Amino acid sequence: MTIIATDTTPRAWLACLNCYNNGRLVGQWVDCTDADEVTLNQLHEGAGGPYVGCEEIWCLDIENVPVDREMGLLEASEWGQVYTEVGPEHWLALCAWVRSGSYVAEGRGDLASVGDFGERYCGHWGDFREYAEHWATETDMMDRWPDEAVRYFNWEAWTRDIAMDHTVVDAPAPSTASLSSVTSDTRAPVAIGCGGSLLSGSPSSVLVSDPATAKPDQPSEAAGARQCSQRDQRLVPPDLGGRE
Q1: Among 186, 230, 194, which residue's Cα sits nearest to residue 212?
Q2: pLDDT tens for the chain, residues 1 to 244
């Protein structure tokens, strides 16, 4: 099976707002990391201008950014900075975290807090059960249990129990991909995303978040489980002139 990695670099389609309002489509795709450095002269190269009234550049479309709306150059460049800080290997995970709506924002805007994401991100897993077993092993949960308790432990019920404190998101990857998890705090469970490159194929695994303050010392037999799933999707820009 061939796996095709997809570029996940956040980009913005920058347009001259005056030209756009007057029926002229003048703009170009740029990486968000460079958005605040683009000038009106650069934007109008090959299109004539700048014309009288050309004063403002605006992001009319975005790609690989977890908020689906127009924005200014400063905000686009700030998302580029977040991408640089978190790295391409974790960018999709952060994007899914933001799209969940239960993430930690930097200040009053939509910008994600990289520090909070780093504290919550727990890597990739094939499914929630695998993650639960790994956590139990890493925390030595059963070290002092009697042999009978270990032998007859109800993994299925316990996994359902701790899943109630997790948000689960399908990973957009074939079976070679896995599940990504992020820890939360007591205020609200966070949802996670998938890290690494976006791979070809249909979603086949999930992503989880694990509340840092809710790790149980003793398993319980809770019957219900809450799983919120949300497929991570790349933004496909409309036809605004295409990318050079």
Answers
A1: 186
A2: 444 557 899 999 999 999 999 999 999 999 999 999 999 999 998 888 798 999 999 999 999 999 999 999 999 999 999 999 999 999 988 998 888 887 889 877 889 999 998 888 877 788 889 989 999 999 999 999 999 999 999 999 999 998 877 767 766 644 333 344 444 432 223 334 333 222 222 233 444 454 443 333 333 332 222 222 222 323 233 343 444 4
> Global pTM?
0.67
Closest C-alpha among 225, 216, 74 to residue 164 = 225
Q: Cβ(209)–Cβ(167) under 8 Å?
A: yes
Site of tokens 């061939």:
2
Euclidean distance between CA atoms 72 and 103, whole angstroms: 22
* Segments of the chain assigned E as strands: 11-16, 27-31, 57-63, 121-125, 169-171, 179-184, 205-211
- Residues written for the chain: 244
- The residues, any chain, with a CB within 8 Å of residue 137's CB and separated by 6 or more, are none
Whole-number Å distance between alpha carbons of 37 and 9: 17
